[in-house]
Amino acid sequence: MKVILAGGSGLIGRYFSRRLLQNGHQVWILSRNPQGQLLPTGAVGLRWDGKTPQGWWQLLEEMDVVVNLTGENLAGGLWTEGRKQRFLSSRVDAGKAIVEAVRMAARRPKVLLQSSGIGYYGLSGDHVVSEDTPPGEDFMAKLCVQWEDSTRAVEELGVRRVIIRNSPVFTNESLILKMFLLPFRMFVGGRLGSGRQWVPWIHLDDQIGAMLHLIENEDCRGPYNLAAPEVLRNADFGKTIARVLRRPYWFPVPAFALRLAIGEMSQMVLAGQRADSSRLVESGYTFKYPALAEALTQIVTAKR
């Protein structure tokens, strides 16, 4: 396959492009600074502004697959109004540019893989959320709705579109996993907030494997929850970390302390979703790491 990837500098994009190349596919990566970005060996970098199809849309006529992973990282600082606007514009502007490129191409790609987030479902409490569940009303949910909608028009142009509603991806490089592990490594781990909130997650190997599966299977279209089958409450999640790391589980962190420390971003750990990944499994995907304990064991024992 010939694949063009927007958003290739992030964690998922880097590993996904490497897997594609390892599997014998050809990869082009759209980047604002392709010369300054360390691209995987064999990938071709293309400059773009993240807002228009100028300079690369003609190449789309040779592509089989478009992967859209663009979007400013949600971690790394407080969610000021300025940052929240950048979260939105970086996603929506890029999606609209991809639609315009597809519209102009004489020969169109067969499939578009569109990134989104499990936060699409908002503050869903104990309710099990499947792909048919309506979106929430909080900032993250509204962001995901607009993110997904930015490329909806390609379906009218005859392109199969698959939406991946990503959970936090767990690997040694994952910032959110480091946030979960650090208190336990320092012997002060415990529940966060009430401890009753659900924690969706997925191992990096399954994130990449599921993306390939959804691209390669022509019957797959529409949204898919990318979440491991074992979704635990935060308290049980923490106890599993303690057991894997052989650390005590005893020091609770109140919700107000997290909100004071990291502001609205605390919602990512205080208000998780009880995500159901049955649709992905029914499509034929088999999880390599369906349970948290084995996923964490692999990650903490892997060579860094």
Characterise the protein shown here:
Helix 1 (11-22) links the parallel strand 1 (2-6) and strand 2 (26-31). The protein is α/β, with parallel strands linked by helices and 304 residues long. The protein is built from ten helices and 13 strands. Helix 1 crosses helix 5 (204-216) and helix 6 (234-245) crosses helix 10.
Brief overview:
The chain has 304 residues and is of the alpha/beta class. Helices cover 36% and strands 16% of the residues. It has helices spanning 11-22, 81-104, 139-149, 175-185, 204-216, 234-245, 255-262, 267-270, 278-282, 292-301; strands at 2-6, 26-31, 44-47, 65-68, 111-117, 128-129, 160-166, 169-170, 198-199, 202-203, 222-226, 232-233, 274-275.
Q: What would the average pLDDT be, to the nearest integer?
A: 91
Order the strands across the largest sheet as they lie in space. Answer: 3-2-1-4-5-7-11
Kindly estimate the percentage of residues that lie in beta strands according to DSSP: 15-25%
Q: Please, how many helices?
A: 10
Number of strands: 13
Report the order of strands and helices: EHEEEHEEHEEHEEHEEHHHEHH
Overall shape? globular
Instruction: State the share of residues found in helices, binned by percent.
Output: 25-40%
Low-confidence segments, ≥5 residues, pLDDT <50?
none
